[in-house]
Amino acid sequence: MTRAIQMFEQNAGRYDAWYIKHWYAYLSELIAIKSIMPGFKRGIEVGSGTGRFALPLGIHIGVEPAQGMASIAIRRGLRTVNARAEELPFCNESFDLALIVVSICFFADPHIALIEVNRILVSGGHLVIGIIPANSLVGNFYLRNKIPPFYTHAKFFTVKDMFQLLNQTGFTVEIIVQTLFDFPWMLTKEHPVVKGFSSGSFVAILAKKI
Fold it and tell me: What are the residue boundaries of the structural domains of the chain, listed by start?
């Protein structure tokens, strides 16, 4: 078990409570992702946590290595498989949509994980990925402060880093949007979703399997 997985195992309830405490940040992220979601028949979230994103977006299968997190998701109704992103226990071309929300910054090997995601997607299938850019307002804050317990083990990417990683693992970027233009704890309403990635602290990318 990696240190990141162990950390989430021990702090599942605290993690889930973040979304209540920072409700408008959560809604802003959810709306951003929904705005670029293509139609799909069989979707999966990789790094599904407590099910906060998969279920509202119509995804009913998740992969989560921290059992404490998975237990909360299962109680919410998400069919959750206990596995790591780098070793997905599914056949080739099993899904037409994969979702990853922020969790890529905790993967032991993001490159191998995206190769695995590519493998389980059908030809022309889509990946929707949400990140906190390393050079964004919130990303810079988290990098400087390494707020325990969650961001002690995080590795943030810039959007350009993510473009490169997606290209290397067999994806092409189709759409990119941004939201969160202030710190999550400062929001008093949902933030708008805007095209591009110039100033938002949450960026959602739609990529297609080549």
Answer: 3-209
SS3 sequence of 111-150:
HHHHHHHHHHEEEEEEEEEEECCCCCHHHHHHHHHCCCCH
Write the pLDDT tens digit of every residue in 69-111.
999 999 999 999 999 999 999 999 999 999 999 999 999 999 9
pTM above 0.90, yes or no: yes
CA pair distance 175, 129, nearest whole angstrom = 11
Q: Which amino acid is at 118?
A: N
Task: Tell me how far apart the alpha carbons of residues 63 and 67 are, in angstroms, rounded to a whole number.
Answer: 10
User: CATH fold of 3-209, please?
Assistant: Rossmann fold (3.40.50)
Question: Which ranges of 11-121 would DSSP assign to H, the alpha helix?
Answer: 12-21, 23-36, 67-76, 110-120
